[in-house]
Amino acid sequence: MKKLYYTSFFYAVLGLIAGIFYREITKFSDFTGRTVLTALHTHILVLGFIFFIMVLVLAKLFHVHEAKSFGAWYIIYNAGLLITIGAMTARGMLQLNEEDISFLPHIAGLGHAILGAGIIWLLILLGKRIK
User: What end-to-end distance do the CA atoms of the chain give, in Å?
Assistant: First the structure.
């Protein structure tokens, strides 16, 4: 359960840094348009910090962390989140220079799909622990 706490703590700090980074980089660049960086802060805080706090509560109440495939789930979910964060950051930085790479939204979409699969997987693990 400590691993879940530390993971949540990591994403809380990363999410706050992402918010400060967005504000400062757009101010430094005199950028006033739209960029994916605006959503990065929220994505990290919700899908990382808050999500892992909720998983920690589920671990305490239902011992979901003792399920056989929990370790694999943990790796897959974090990989999906880090793929999403990386693609969003890269695309947002390119948008500051009014550039873009056409495949970056697809990589972010892949990360989101992995996250969706991870959420379903966690619900299945929870369902088994409730029975």
Answer: 21
pLDDT at 130 > cutoff 80 = yes
33 vs 17: CA distance, rounded Å = 21
| Tens of pLDDT, residues 10-23 | 999 999 999 999 99
Distance from the Cα of residue 113 to its chain's centroid: 12
- CA distance linking residue 32 with residue 49, whole number of Å: 28
Q: Choose between 105 and 121: higher pLDDT.
A: 121
- Contact between 126 and 58 under an 8 Å Cβ cutoff? The reply is yes
**Which tokens go with 130?**
């409730």
Cβ burial, residue 120 (10 Å; 0-12/13-18/19+)? exposed
Question: Which bin fits 123, alpha (ψ -120 to 50), beta or left (φ > 0)?
Answer: alpha
Q: Where does residue 91 rank: exposed (0-12), middle (13-18), buried (19+ CB within 10 A)?
A: buried
